[in-house]
Write a structure and sequence with these properties.
Elements (H helix, E strand, L loop, with lengths): L1 E5 L3 H10 L3 E5 L14 H13 L3 E6 L8 H13 L4 E4 L2 H10 L5 E3 L8 H9 L4 E3 L6 H7 L5 E8 L11 H6 L16 E3 L2 E3 L7 E2 L4 H7 L3 E4 L6 H15 L6 H10 L29 E10 L2 E6 L8 E6 L2 E6 L10 E5 L11 E6 L1 H9 L5 E9 L4 E7 L4 E8 L1 E2 L7 H8 L7 E10 L2 E2 L2 H23 L22 E4 L2 H5 L5 E4 L6 H10 L5 E3 L6 H13 L6 E4 L13 E3 L8 H9 L5 E2 L6 H7 L6 E14 L3 H5 L24 E3 L5 E9 L2 E13 L1 H6 L3 E6 L18
Parallel strand pairs: 1-2, 1-11, 2-3, 3-4, 4-5, 5-6, 6-7, 7-11, 18-22, 24-25, 24-34, 25-26, 26-27, 27-28, 29-30, 30-34
Antiparallel strand pairs: 7-10, 8-9, 12-13, 12-17, 13-16, 14-15, 14-17, 18-19, 19-20, 21-23, 30-33, 31-32, 32-33
């Protein structure tokens, strides 16, 4: 299983390789889902790929944002560069980028980013069918779903360590709707890490604990995962070294001992780690509402304060340079310890700043360990053993052949002179040839063929440098994939022809009031019994909206019900792109869970048989006009409360402290006063965001809705577009125009 480490900058790349990463993932200066990371420009990218390939480490590059039509030429130039420098894979979210990459650069390996929201085996199979070589599964997948997906003819990568998005990746509009910074375009403002009030209690109800699957690598490998991904392109290089090193040991069969676990906790964690959805964590086990930043490691508590000095009884060793935090009620005071090293059980004295208010009993936490950071920086890069064969015979060219066991290179010098006094010995040659300290190589075995030869030391040194440079180039060449030719891209032609308006309704009562266009039922309850009851009441020709995320068994059940009711249904609206992996017996269209931001993405979906597609809610009116040129059958979001996030944890159950029984929960079914129904999250400005459940056989998803409906109905109709209307919580006052006049970054 691959140890896949983040590389937000060159220093992090260096530390990842030193720690034993098999591959790294990084972003270029544009079109990366972590725009805030250092990322790599062209020169840095070339250098990074050469460095990684020298050490036989693969490089995956993220081009995993949604792309506007006006940016596509720039994306093509980036793909051309990535093909030329022979990166090992490109991660994509946007279907237009996928289409262009497969058409123009067919030899370039493409991975489905987690932003593509592939949740099940059917989705993985679709990715394989589309020519992708790996699917990075959604982080909400259970171990059993990972196992099912791994049976498909495609590599499966899983998330193993670090920060987990609380919403389904690729389906989050929270950041863009409240502040114009789109998470789908790499600029998430992380509103999920803010405090909200739920049922009168304030806390970070949308802030997950960090994931740590260090102890579960054998289970993931058995399930068929080929790669374990470490999050952290925004983290410091020392974090990469510590975490990648720990997972290297785990993949090599070493269990995490107490020290290893302590090192992971110390370098960074929120909430003390969880084992993630893959290993069955639920609700209160996912969310830590008390703290959104690094939890650190407790090292003692204050036992006395005298003036600006505090005495701390230590439970762990303390070292000069450690970064500390004193937790006084709701206040955190940070400082760097400057003093003598102290052992657990000792009393250490801290010098307090005038602004620090502390008292006896306050906890002291170490945020950074000076020794840990120093050790991470001191990790040496792995050396590459090589064998050398020197031929130094009078009258023949001086020749040095070097090999790492697979790659071979030869350097040739001037003709060798016969020795007039002292001939070169094997030991003489060794002294010069073993001086490889400024390279990645180390001499393993040396064979010398010589007889009465005079070879200047300078000639040996020059030959060594030349041979090792050539071996480095050859190693990179042998490790890198072959470059394919760029092909011409055919012009993008979208089908013409109108599509009727689509009104998506949450209830059957709303459905009955739809007067024009296509009516679509988006059920609250996707359990089979509830669906059968609703389908019996559904008007003839109505469409059924599928969930944006579901397990494989649920998707197969939905397919069976759709097949059984094909005579009654007008069609199905797909909730995620992976649902294209199943053959539907009736017409189908791409809903808002498959966002279309450019014409190439629309073309791919039409080529996949979609009767219509849906424009991204993050497009402005002017950008929508570009997409809609020629009036293709594309629905334009016109009215409705936008779904800001799709949550896999239930805030109601989290509030109650429940961490088991998610699938069997009946709080909403029995109308418990503790149920989610009717509850909201309220931000610090008093804005309320409604919570709606969506019941699946495997348990509920929760839809976090915008505070106000987006209303561009008049604008959409005036432009001559087919409107998408979504009815959920009608009856309130006020509205927003969303991004119609406010383009996202």
């Amino acid at each position: 299983m691959e140890n896949l480490a983040p590389a937000g900058n060159y220093e992090a790349l260096d530390r990842a390789i030193a720690a034993g990463a098999d591959a790294v993932y990084l972003g270029c200066s544009a079109f990366s889902a972590r725009a805030g990371a250092g990322n790599f420009d062209e020169e840095e990218l070339r250098r990074a790929v050469a460095f990684a390939h020298l050490h036989h480490v693969r490089v995956h590059v993220t081009v995993n944002t949604l792309i506007k039509d006006g940016e596509m030429d720039e994306v093509k130039a980036l793909l051309r560069l990535l093909s030329e420098v022979r990166v090992d894979a490109v991660l994509v979210q946007d279907l237009g980028v996928l289409r262009m990459a497969r058409e123009c650069f067919p030899a370039l390996p493409i991975h489905a980013s987690t932003q593509m929201a592939i949740h099940n085996a059917t989705g993985a199979a679709w990715c394989a069918r589309m020519g992708m070589t790996r699917a990075v599964l959604a982080r909400e997948c259970s171990l059993s779903e990972i196992s099912l997906a791994a049976r498909q003819p495609i590599e499966i990568e899983v998330f193993g360590h670090g920060a987990q998005c609380v919403g389904v990746s690729g389906q989050c509009l929270f950041s863009s709707m409240i502040g114009s910074r789109s998470g789908n375009r790499g600029r998430c403002a992380q509103p999920c890490r803010l405090d909200y009030t739920y049922r009168g209690k304030r806390g970070a109800w949308l802030s997950p604990r960090d994931v740590c699957l260090r102890d579960y690598l054998p289970e993931l490998k058995k399930a068929g995962a080929c790669s374990i991904k470490i999050e952290g392109r925004l983290k410091r290089p020392e974090y990469v070294a510590v975490v990648a090193g720990s997972y290297r040991r785990g993949l090599d069969g070493l269990k995490a001992d107490a020290r290893d676990k302590q090192e992971l906790l110390q370098i960074f964690q929120r909430g003390g780690f969880m084992k993630g959805y893959a290993m069955g964590v639920e609700d209160a086990g996912v969310i830590d509402p008390t703290r959104v930043n690094h939890g650190g490691v407790g090292i003692g508590s204050i036992e006395a304060v005298s003036g600006k000095l505090a005495r701390v009884r230590l439970t762990m060793d303390l070292h000069d340079g450690d970064g500390l935090q004193i937790r006084h009620g709701h206040e955190d005071h940070e400082m760097i310890y400057a003093g003598k090293d102290a052992l657990a059980g000792d009393v250490a004295v801290l010098r307090l700043r005038p602004d620090m208010r502390v008292q006896s009993g306050d906890a002291v936490v170490r945020l950074t360990s000076a020794r840990q950071l120093e050790a991470a920086r001191a990790l040496t890069l792995p050396t590459i053993p090589c064998d050398m064969t020197l031929v130094a015979l009078p009258g023949e060219p001086l020749t040095l052949t070097v090999t790492d066991g697979a790659s071979v290179a030869t350097a040739t010098g001037e003709a060798v002179s016969a020795a007039q006094k002292r001939a070169m010995t094997e030991e003489d040659a060794r002294r010069s040839l073993e001086k490889t300290g400024d390279t990645a190589f180390v001499l393993r075995e040396l064979t010398v063929f010589t007889e009465n030869a005079f070879v200047p030391v300078s000639a040996l040194n020059a030959l060594r440098r030349d041979a090792l440079d050539k071996l480095a180039d050859q190693r990179q060449e042998d490790f890198a994939r072959k470059v394919g030719e760029e092909r011409e891209e055919a012009p993008v032609h979208l089908p013409s022809g109108s599509v009727p308006p689509l009104t998506v309704c949450r209830t059957l009562e709303q459905l009955a009031d739809v007067a024009e266009g296509m009516a679509c039922w988006y059920p609250e309850d996707f359990r089979e019994e509830a669906l059968l009851a609703g389908l019996a009441q559904l008007p003839q020709g109505a469409w059924l909206h599928l969930p944006m995320a579901c397990e494989e068994a649920t998707l197969q059940m939905l397919h069976r019900l759709v097949t059984d009711h094909a005579h009654k249904l007008g069609g199905v609206v797909l909730g995620s792109v992976g649902q294209l992996g199943i053959k539907w017996p009736i017409p189908y269209g791409a809903g808002s869970g498959i966002p279309v931001m450019n014409r190439r993405a629309a073309a791919l979906l039409f080529e996949q048989g979609c009767a219509f597609v849906t424009a991204s809610a993050e497009l402005s009116g002017a950008e929508t006009a570009v997409l809609m040129a020629g009036q293709p059958p594309i629905l334009v979001p016109a009215y409705g409360y936008a779904q800001l996030m799709l949550l896999h944890h239930c805030p109601a159950r989290t509030y109650l402290g429940l961490d088991k029984g998610h699938a069997a929960c009946r709080l909403c079914d029995v109308h418990s006063p503790d149920a989610l129904h009717g509850t909201v999250l309220t931000d610090r400005k008093g804005v309320t965001f409604p919570l709606l459940r969506q019941r699946l056989p495997e348990g509920c998803l929760v839809r976090l809705m915008n505070a106000l409906p987006t209303d561009n109905l008049a604008r959409v109709k005036a432009a001559g577009y087919a409107p998408l209307i979504e009815l959920t919580l009608e009856g309130g006052e006020g509205s927003t125009s969303g991004h119609w006049n406010r383009p996202v970054d």
